[in-house]
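re the bet — no i am not wrong, look at it urself. input seq straight from the record:
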Amino acid sequence: MPKPLVNVDASAASSFCLTDEMPPLTTGWHAHRRHQLLYAARGALHLEVDRAQWLLPPQRAAWLRGGTLHRARANHLVTLCTVYLEPSLVPTAPQEECSVFLLPPLAREMLIYSVRWGPERAPDDTVAESFFQTLAHLLAEWSSQGQTWRLPRARTPELEKAMAYTLAHLAGPLSFEEAARAAGLSGRTLARRFDEEAQTTWRRFLHDARMLRAMELLAQDGARVTQTAYDVGFESLAAFTHAFHAFSGERPRDFRQRVAQGAPRPAPPLRPTRRKRAE
């Protein structure tokens, strides 16, 4: 069962961490005055803000600006770690409402360590204050490497119906015409809605949704790559593997093994710094 609700905005501590074992649920739209760093240590969390939505499997975190309306959904049990940071501690506030990025090894270890300081901690704990201030400084660097793995949100009821229908039928054959009928729109009108409201096409939306759904399934205990491919609408394992690698940079088998082991994603190689020649 989840822990009793905590009024995080009433805490006297400037910054702190909360951990929760969340059963399948959907929160209402809400906001907090502090900046938030959300991390699913186990399972996968869906996160939505006004204009976009993300999936947070293990090893990905979300950096939410204070005051941002958002809601979360878990289709399976998820272990959630959330760090709340006083805005005055953050030297560079999040430029966007939300930025999602891959956790480097240091970030993951710091989040695990921050669990020792909950909202009830002493406000004058100098070690905690120093720790969270250091974390706040590093967040600007980490979040600058944000990923584009997200889905747009609809601005009108009709497009919302088309998106909802698409998301509910990722496992089977699905046509654009079916999505248009579900929305009560002509194909031409639906295509225009996707272009104007979501700045994408229906086919791209479908593809990205299938990849994010695959990440969610592969993050579950006992996940099988072949079954996951079928569950997101692929009839060919080779085609699924190619699409997943192109989308995430990892083969589905490697992604599944890494998540199961709790290992961080390998960092990309650093580019050599070009030195200026002496004048």
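see?? The chain is about 40% helix and 20% strand. told u. also The longest strand covers residues 35-42. so pay up
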